[in-house]
Amino acid sequence: MNQLQTMEIFVNYSQKVSIFSKPEVLADNLACELLNDFKNCNRDRFNIALSGGNTPKVLYQKLSSYQYRTKFNWNQIDLFWGDERCVPPDNEESNFALVNQFLINNIDIPTQNIHRIKGEKVPEQEAVRYSKELKQHFNTGDQYPCFDIILLGLGSDGHTASLFPNSKNLGNKNYCSVAVHPETGQNRITLNLPVLLNARKIFFMVAGFNKAKIIKKIILEKIISKKYPASLLNKSRRVKWFLDKAAARYLI
Q1: Distance between CA atoms of residues 64 and 237, nearest Å
Q2: Does 214 reside within a domain?
Q3: What SS3 class is residue 78?
Q4: In terms of residue numbers, what domain contains 79?
């Protein structure tokens, strides 16, 4: 890391967890890590699965700034989504709409490199279609696709992507499935655990005091339970956590 980034890191909790003073510093360091991974990639294509949410929004704003957008070769990068709400692509709840507004509209990326989940379609049919698109793009055969990086957020209940506590999706072996939000009843489409776990790297970015208790359970207490779906990923050595000091208040 350069000198500025080293000074701005609040503390390194472990090799898997980095804690930063505020979300903007977190996003800057994560953007830098993404750029390094891209530059060190020895393949023609670099595949990323994106997340929705307020914290990732700060990252997308950083990636679309002049500091970063000019350093990526967007022709080589394919953008996918870890999950999507079953709403039209221009709906304010759409994960695609968020990425489109704060990243895609501000970078020079070919349309064919954008692989969105079509939330406006019939959910069960779209889960099948997106699975086929993944299989074709990654040429997986009988294997799971291997993303270079999957970006994930974390809910205060421990959910990640649209894998909710004690959901039947947690045992689903397909690439994608339809999930139902336990409180709102909203349909969503999500990548399933085997796909998430098969990524080369999994980056969680988490900010805010309301995430501190679940961070404590997963990272400090090392709980692994279907009650906290993100904990099922934390056992992987490929996981790295990017936290602000509010989310990490019990780790400091």
Answers
A1: 29
A2: yes
A3: strand
A4: 21-244
Task: Judge residue 52's burial from the number of C-beta atoms within 10 Å of its C-beta, 0-12 exposed, 13-18 middle, 19 or more buried.
Answer: buried
Report the C-alpha gap between 101 and 61 in whole angstroms: 9
Instruction: Check pLDDT > 60 for residue 187.
Output: yes
For the domain that residue 140 is a member of, what is the CATH number?
3.40.50.1360
Predicted TM-score of the model (pTM): 0.94
Domain-embedded: residue 2: no
What's the structural domain count of the chain? Answer: 1
Q: Is residue 212 part of a domain?
A: yes
Is pLDDT at 15 greater than 70 in this prediction?
no
Burial class (CB in 10 A: 0-12, 13-18, 19+), 49: buried
Sheet holding 83-85, edge to edge: 83-85, 187-191, 176-180
Interacting residues of 20 by C-beta distance below 8 A, sequence separation 6+ = 8, 9, 10, 26, 29, 242, 243, 244, 245
Task: Report the C-alpha gap between 24 and 82 in whole angstroms.
Answer: 22
Cβ 233 vs Cβ 206: under 8 Å: no
Contact between 219 and 158 (Cβ < 8 Å):
no
Average pLDDT, the chain: 93
> Does residue 162 form part of some domain?
yes
Torsion angles phi and psi, residue 92, rounded to 5: -65, -20
Buried b or exposed e, range 120-148, using 16+ CB within 10 angstroms: eeebeebbbbbbebbbeebeeeeebbebb
| pLDDT above 60: residue 31 | yes
Token pair of 116 as six digits = 């969105």
